[in-house]
Amino acid sequence: MTKTGTPSRVIGITLGLHSSKESMWINGIKMNAIFLANALKAAGHYIYLLDTSTKVGRNEISGKLNSDELMWDDEEFPCYDWKKKGKECDILICLGTTLGPDQAKDWRGDDKHKKIIKYACGNNYVIDMENMIFKEDPGVRPTYNHEFDSIWYVPQQGYQNHEYYRVTNRLLPNQVMPVPFIWDPMFIDQSETIYGRSVDADGKVMPTVEGIPVYHPNKKIEDKQVVVFEPNMNVVKFSMIPLLIANDYIMKGGDLFKKFHIVSAQRLYKNPFWKEFVGGLDITKLDNKEGKPILQVQHRWPVHYILAKWSDVVISHQWENPLNYAYLDCLYLQFPLIHNADFIKDAGYYYPGFEIGKGADLLDHVMKNHDVNMDAYNEQSEEVLTRYTILNEELVLTYSKLIDNLWDGENKHELTHTYNWKTNLYF
Q1: To the nearest whole number, what is the mean pLDDT of the chain?
Q2: Cα–Cα distance for residue pair 203/18, rounded to 1 Å
Q3: Distance CA 307, CA 311 (A)
Q4: Region of poorest pLDDT, from 211-220, 275-284, 332-341, 348-357
Q5: Does residue 91 form part of some domain?
Q6: Who contacts 343 (Cβ-Cβ below 8 Å, separation ≥6)?
Q7: Is 287 helix (H, G, I), strand (E, B) or coil?
Q8: Residue 407: left (phi > 0), alpha (psi -120 to 50), or beta?
Q9: Rounded to an integer, what distance in angstroms lies between the CA atom of residue 218 and that of residue 208?
Q10: Whose CA is closest to 425, among 228, 155, 170, 188?
Q11: Are 399 and 40 in contact (CB under 8 A)?
């Protein structure tokens, strides 16, 4: 039984695994699926992860994926062939992959009570817009589906996407809603073993770093390294503002630090416009005390590897994407985070919007004062982080109520669906 007293449901969550031993850190989508599975299990439901690809080995009879090809505990979170287990589910949550209209109809069959949820984790409006303007790939398909019974989206996507989801999927206002954001440190806590097995986004085996990368204080400013790890794949999470914050800090006379690392920037470095633009900044013309350039361009690596190898301070910037696993991971590992994510403005060092000067002032403050205020900083981080985990019992209860309301076809639990960032729940 769930905490709301209604019968447990069999719920499937879709994934699309691209290769054997695929890294957990290529993107956040597998974590999204497992964190959601964890919350729904805590609410009393039976959960299957369903792989819609055929690229990972599986048992021909049961359809269960081979455990030695997965990067998570398959006993706790078993993953099956979608075609073998999908039909057993009462509710299907399209998260890692979606279904076409014909596939959705086939899955539902004659049982009209079965429900399909689209769980949206990315900024579909921006992604679709960029596909329309910049790409002419016939293999790229629209993400909407008129067979969905509901759209659940992570709350940071609401401003740009709520109405976009409603109209494109032909849904009523009460069928489109933000849901509490879910995060867990489980994969960070396993980082020591993950380091040895993981690959980067290009399939290369990562170097090994010993231990979990918790922040180490009391370095001189001249020995500190600053890092920005936005993915640089589209405009919503891009490294330019953090770079300008560091540049403004230097222009204002801030003490020179050792290095500034831009991660996931190798592709940018090949762009002549980017090189010319960045080449005109003060930070690119300076050497550190060792006589080496301050600005460093890096490949894409998992956050915990970046923090362990290159970071004493993290600067981030987002545009209408004010929650991010990487930011929470950073807080969990006790690193000073300078950010403009207004859903976590009560943690880290917050600057509004595009206020580069405010960010530069915070960088100066962090360089000089963070280490003496670490205890208070970490206590506040812990308080904020808890609201995104299943330790927040109200979060679990909310998901239980959402399932009840979907199954019964009415808002019997009277959820407002108005997101409160301070609690990660509804008002």
Answers
A1: 88
A2: 11
A3: 5
A4: 211-220
A5: yes
A6: 155, 156, 181, 322, 323, 421
A7: strand
A8: alpha
A9: 25
A10: 155
A11: yes
Structural domain total, the chain: 2
- Overall residue count recorded for the chain in this entry: 427
The Cα–Cα gap between 239 and 265 comes to 9
Distance separating alpha carbons of residues 185 and 385, to the nearest angstrom: 10
Residue 2 lies in a domain: no
Distance CA 236, CA 340 (A): 12
Reported as a pLDDT band with limits 50, 70 and 90, residue 141 is confident
Q: Are residues 157 and 281 in the same domain?
A: no
Nearest C-alpha neighbor of 386 from the set 348, 337, 332:
332
DSSP 21-72: T--TTS-SHHHHHHHHHHHHHHTT-EEEEEE-SS-S-B-TTT-BBPGGG-SS
pTM: 0.91
Q: What local confidence, expressed as pLDDT, does residue 209 receive?
A: 47
Place of tokens 């914050």: 245
pLDDT one-digit tens code per residue, 242-286: 999 999 999 999 999 999 999 988 888 889 999 899 999 999 988
Closest residue by Cα to residue 215 from 96, 101, 370: 370
Written in H, E and C, the secondary structure of 97-150 is CCCCHHHHHHHHCCCCCCEEEEEECCCHHHHHHHHHHHCCCCCCCCCCCCCCCE
Range of the domain at 76: 10-183+389-426
How open is the CA angle 265-270-274, to the nearest 5 degrees? 75
